[in-house]
Amino acid sequence: MRVAFYTLGCKVNQYETQIMEQMFSAEGFDIVDSASGSADIYVVNSCTVTATGDKKSRQVLRRFKRQNPGAAAVLTGCYPQAFPEAAQQIPEADVITGTYRRSAVLEAVKEYLSTGKRVVRITPMERKGENRARFEEMRAGQMNERTRAFVKIQDGCDRFCSYCIIPTARGPVRSKPLEEIRAELTALAENGYREAVLVGINLPCYGSDLGLGLLDAVKTACAIPGLERVRLGSLEPELLTPEDIAAMAAMPNLCPQFHLSLQSGCDATLKRMNRRYDTAEYRRIVRDLRSAFENASITTDIMVGFPGEDEGEFRESLAFAEEIAFAKAHVFMYSPRPGTRAANMPGQVDSAAKERRSGEMIRATERTRRKFLESQIGRREQVLFETNTSGGLYHGYTRNYTPVEAASLENLCGQMREVTITGLTEDGQGCFGAAE
Question: pTM of this prediction?
Answer without folding.
Answer: 0.93
